[in-house]
Design brief:
It is built from four helices and six strands, in the order βααβββαββα. The chain has about 80 residues and is of the alpha+beta class. A two-stranded parallel ribbon has the order 1-2. It has a two-stranded antiparallel ribbon with strand order 3-4. A hairpin with a 2-residue loop joins strand 3 and strand 4.
Length: about 80
């Protein structure tokens, strides 16, 4: 997931995973730059990320810009829920 620390939708998505689980178990890329609400990390610029959260799903690389339930993510990725 591409997200930004200042993004309320990203925070909502992270809360679905609990504490630091998204960073521990899922690919998370921070696009925000601390102290600069308008700055975007170069990796996100290079990937053309415009909205947060943005999920990128293998194997096709499909990108979807929205919040997902854990069940939806499990279905899309094949990862079982605990």
């Amino acid at each position: 997931m591409y997200g930004a620390y200042w993004c309320p939708h990203c925070q909502e998505q992270k809360e679905k995973f609990g504490a630091s689980a998204l960073e521990d178990y899922g690919p998370y890329v921070e696009c925000g730059i601390k102290g600069d609400l308008h700055g975007v990390a170069q990796v996100c610029k290079d990937e053309g990320i415009k909205h947060y959260p943005t999920w990128q799903f293998p194997p096709t690389g499909e990108r979807v810009e929205r919040i997902f339930s854990l069940e939806e993510l499990s279905d899309r990725t094949g990862c079982a829920l605990p």
